[in-house]
Each structure stands twice: as C-alpha cells, then as structure tokens.
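Appendix C: a fully annotated inverse folding record. The material below is reproduced so that readers can follow the format used throughout the book. The structure is listed first as tokens, followed by the designed sequence.
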C-alpha cells in the first residue's frame, strides 16, 4: 500500500540536505496526508513562512537527543507548540550539549593529524556535518565512509552523548506540557530483543515506537509491533530522509499506509479528520 504519513525527515536546520522550501515542494508533490519534519534538537522549520496547504497536513515534530542507561536514544516528540516553554528549555540545553560534543570531536580530529578547512562562522551541530567536512577535505569519499573509516563510534568516545540530559529528565520536564507524544526513533539500532529496557521506557512515559523505519527488517518490525500491541502503545513510521544519496527512501515513500495512519490518529487522539483526500482539523 502507498505511504500516506511520513513522520520522520530532516532539513538543513539539522543534518539534512533539503532546505525547508525543498521539503515543502517534495511534500506537495507526494501523496502524503500527514508529515513531520523532525530535525535534531531544532524546531526552526516550524518558524518559517509555511503555506496553508502545508500546514494542514503538518504535525509538529523534533528528534531529541538523549540517553537511557548506557544507550543513546533518539526521542521523537510530536504535537508541540513552537513557543512551548518546557520544550524550548530542553532544546537550549541540548544545543549547549551539542556545542560541547562538536568541540570535543574537532579537537580529537586535530590531535589525530586531520587539518580541516571549513567555514568557522557556520554553526556545526551534528557529527554528520563533520563527516561532510571530512569529505570536503578529501579525507573520505562520502558521509557514510567518513563514519566507517574515521568517526567510528566504538573507537571515538567523543561521539558519545554523555553530556546530554538523560531520558528520565527529558520526559519529566516535557510531560509538563499537555498533549505531547513521545516515540522512540529507530529502536532497532539499540533495543531489538531488549524487552526490559523498552518496558522501562514505556513506564517512564514513552508513548510508542517507530516500528516502520528503513533499517528494520521484517523480524524487527514484527517484534516492535508486538510490544506496542502488548503495551497498547503507538506505532509510527517515516523515511528518515536526509537527502539524495543519504537515505534509501525519498520523502513520502516510506512510513505509514492509510490504515496505519488512521490507527495512529485515533490512538493518539490527535483529532485529524480525513475527508475527500484532505485532513480537516
């Protein structure tokens, strides 16, 4: 069945290659009825001059960087208001943590003998941007190869998220805002067959899992879907689009089909109404 909801994608406000205008153009050309731009620790997409046609199918979203026990966690947060004081408090903390992390990574690369030329006036907030700089300086052929050959997570402790606030605190602060939805992004990276850890996160206030992610095989999708059913949690999905050549699926080509979207809409109590191919608020 065709994709009707793509609830995970990135723009140039974090580590994506598409500007907000290019994302809007891609969405307009798609069959999507609902989408969300989930930049890393950044909600600037939602501060742009978006058209009414885009707004009517847009669910506010952000991908928050955090950690749980010894695991890094990417928490998708949906349905916020841009001026939410609790969310903006957390985002400021995360931006400060990102600056520390980036400084540590750049210092480590310098100590390893890498000489990097880049625009130092531009804010670098993600390791993906550093990977791109390594490509631009001819140390790697592509972003992915920069990770495979240089920015190896198991050999590069500066890539860790130890300086970021933990999941329990994030949820404790954000839960003060009504109607927010908390989803663990691509859980297959960290939590496949980790029933106990997932159950603990559910108990802390996580509302569901991103079951439909391109990195999940059929066995993983069935496993995470079973856990969501067992705990009566939400099932979401999205392309995790970063740009051409960086993601296996384009915007609107991976996520939830119509049946799955209706289930998500009903269980989350978002209140979208579908009529004649449009969503009516």
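Designed amino acids, in order:
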């Amino acid at each position: 069945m065709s994709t009707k909801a793509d609830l995970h994608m990135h723009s140039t406000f974090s580590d994506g290659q598409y500007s907000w205008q290019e994302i809007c153009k891609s969405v307009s050309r798609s069959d999507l009825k609902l989408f969300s731009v989930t930049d890393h620790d950044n909600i600037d997409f939602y501060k742009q001059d978006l058209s009414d046609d885009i707004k009517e199918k847009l669910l506010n979203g952000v991908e928050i960087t955090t950690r749980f026990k010894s695991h890094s966690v990417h928490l998708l947060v949906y349905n916020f208001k841009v001026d939410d004081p609790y969310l903006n408090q957390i985002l400021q903390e995360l931006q400060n943590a990102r600056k520390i992390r980036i400084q540590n990574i750049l210092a480590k690369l310098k100590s390893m003998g890498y000489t990097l030329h880049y625009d130092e006036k531009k804010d670098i907030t993600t390791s993906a941007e550093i990977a791109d700089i390594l490509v631009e300086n001819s140390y790697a052929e592509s972003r992915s190869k920069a990770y495979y050959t240089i920015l190896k997570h198991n050999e590069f402790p500066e890539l860790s998220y130890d300086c970021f606030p933990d999941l329990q605190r994030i949820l404790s602060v954000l839960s003060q805002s009504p109607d927010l939805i908390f989803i663990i992004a691509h859980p297959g990276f960290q939590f496949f067959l980790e029933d106990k850890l997932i159950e603990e996160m559910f108990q802390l206030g996580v509302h569901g899992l991103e079951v439909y992610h391109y990195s999940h095989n059929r066995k993983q999708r069935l496993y995470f879907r079973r856990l969501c059913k067992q705990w009566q949690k939400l099932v979401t999905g999205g392309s995790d689009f970063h740009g051409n050549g960086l993601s296996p699926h384009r915007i609107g080509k991976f996520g939830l089909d119509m049946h799955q979207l209706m289930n998500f809409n009903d269980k989350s109590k978002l209140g979208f109404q579908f009529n004649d191919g449009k969503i009516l608020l």
